[in-house]
Amino acid sequence: MLYREAGQFKSTYGQDQQIFPILQDRVAMSALLLVAFVAVPIFGDQYWLSAIITPFLILSLAALGLNILTGYAGQLSLGTAAFMAVGAFMAYNAMLRIPHIPVLGAFAIGGLSAAAVGFVFGLPSLRIKGLYLAVATLACQFFILWLINRVGWFSNHSSSGVITAQRMVILGYEFVSPASKYLLTLGVVGAMALAAKNLMRSETGRAFMAVRDMDVAAAVVGIPMMRTKLLAFAISSFYCGVAGALYAFCYLGTVEPEAFTLDLSFRVLFMIIIGGVGSILGSFLGAAFITLFPILLNFVSKGLESVLGVEMNHAMVSNTEAIIFGGLIIFFLIVEPNGLARMWQIAKEKLRLWPFPH
Amino acid sequence: MNFFLEVVAGGLLAGVMYALVALGFVLIYKASGVFNFAQGSMVFFAALTFVSLTERGWNFWLALAVTLAVMVVLGMLTERIVLRPLINQPPITLLMATIGLTFVLEGLSQLAFGSQPHGLELGIPDVPIEWLSEKWNISISQFDLFAALIAGMLVTILAVLFQKTRIGRALRAVADDHQAALAVGIPLQHIWTIVWAVAGCVALVAGMMWGVRNGVQYALTFTALKALPVLILGGFESIAGAIVGGLIIGASEKLAEVYIGPMVGGGIESWFAYVVALLFLLVRPEGLFGEKHIDRV
């Protein structure tokens, strides 16, 4: 009843091409943004802001980056965490070595460095495809981490390889409190998500999708394979790099290279599988799911402990978590290979007809 | 010169160990087109099951038989629960399902048997062979040779299975074309069950070999990741490729570790194999023995 576009006529091309063509969607999105920008920082609990919501947003950005590469351009990558590491360490070095550089400038340098690395490691994609490429991206994951560990320059020759993120000051305002860090993250993530959404609606995005659906056919109709694939790698790694910089500056504070292991790459990959491959919304839904799920599980196990009166040790909980996690991924792939984003779409379709059957 | 030969021989024999893990991947890929990321955790699971049984005082052969049975059951369950509902999905979906399976297996094995490392003893000492070191001054571990022997036997058995038996022909038919195989009456599900069970047995052998060398512990799953460059080097579809790829990766990795490693500060074994494989791929995108892929629109 409420969610229906009846009576909303599009009379200009501009209206036809807007991201949310239905009024109700626009209202809902504005409300969501209002809540995110105003209500959450005011009423949000400190712990939730710094330990759950901020990392959720940052990981959404990383998932978005991977989704551009894997979901839109069809190049499977297992090196996401390495790109994030590049972003984090290069942003740190930019802050350290370039005097008076603005924080956002350092983030951009982190992202651009990651993009350069992505460009280089994207070169094999011109020759090799599919699963071979996935394994090849593992080379990037291991090599980059080794390099950061080995070359002292990256961590400013700290003996443990750990870096501490510098103070973040924009226009004289220092971002210290969880709420301010959250707002900074939200601003960056929101802007980049909007850019990604628009990019995917443009010629570039359509070229990505053509390459994903069938690269030979795409080449035949005149899509430049080299430029498209390398661009996909560069853009995706830029997103991952910025996410890595945010991860270091707004979430972790002190970072060691071991924060960016293959495990993180897998986690981001799971986010896009569960959220929806080839969907901007899916990146956020998947990240939310993966971030919240362990908390829920923890909650349940705590509850079980108090009900049953048995003490579950840490290893048991984490192993059970792994089992449920893996099982859930398989379950999702079987039940809804297109992820949460597809479920959301189906729900909207249903809602449009409700309460009538047809 | 002696030292060089020793390094090469050691590398080749280490490569055999990689090849053992890679074999399991190839089997499953050949028959079902699934890139089984869970092979590493299957190796871990098998080795951990076996070692836990022997530590409980079970007879060696009894433990072996029970573990084999467990792996066969695991293969059947995987086919039934994971693969069958995912028939006709794109390879990337299947790959991700096996990554999910990895988590389940790793969690399950550690939940069942604990996460502390175990030592494994098969009765073959990991010491240099005396007459070789006396005569030519080359030290080659007895156990490495044993592992190579086992790998050779395994490959022979698999080759015979694939080339000479009815099941083997059915497997190859399925690998060529699922639909055509179904059309001529090959029961796809049975074939997949058999392949996963066989891959489970190969995983057990690999797990036992690695277990003797490094102990049965969680790090085994990372070692199994080393099988991936072997695979892309040799080609996903080729058993011979797995062996040759393993040898090349093993030897080049050891050589690089000894001769290049000190120059850049060591620790390069974590990525060197991948870079070698990557360079190979740039020349031959389908690996050494992989099937030439022709794209049609």
Mind describing the biggest β-sheet of chain A? 2 strands, antiparallel
- Biggest interface, residues from each chain: A-B, 46 and 50 residues
Gyration radius from CA atoms of chain B, angstroms: 19 Å
What overall geometry of chain B do the principal axes of the alpha carbons give? globular
Q: Radius of gyration of chain A from the CA trace?
A: 21 Å
Oligomeric assembly: heterodimer
Low-confidence stretches of chain A: none
Stretches of chain B where pLDDT falls below 50 for ≥5 residues? none
Tell me how many strands of chain B there are: 0
Instruction: Find the structural class of chain A using helix and strand composition.
Output: mainly alpha
How much helical structure, as a percent, in the residues of chain B? over 70%
Separation of the first and last Cα atoms of chain A: 13 Å
Helix content of chain A: over 70%
Summing up helix and strand content along with how strands pair, one would put the structural category of chain B as mainly alpha
Written description of the protein model:
The complex is a heterodimer of chains A (358) and B (297). Chain A has 358 residues and is mainly α. Chain A has a domain of 239 residues. Chain A contains 14 helices and 4 strands. A two-stranded antiparallel ribbon of chain A has the order 1-4. In chain A, strands 2-3 form a two-stranded antiparallel sheet. Chain A starts with 12 loop residues before the first helix and ends in a 5-residue tail after the last helix. The model of chain A has no long low-confidence stretch (mean pLDDT 86). In chain B, 74% of the residues lie in helices and 0% in strands. The termini of chain B are far apart. Chain B is mainly α and 297 residues long. The interface between A and B is large, with 46 and 50 residues.
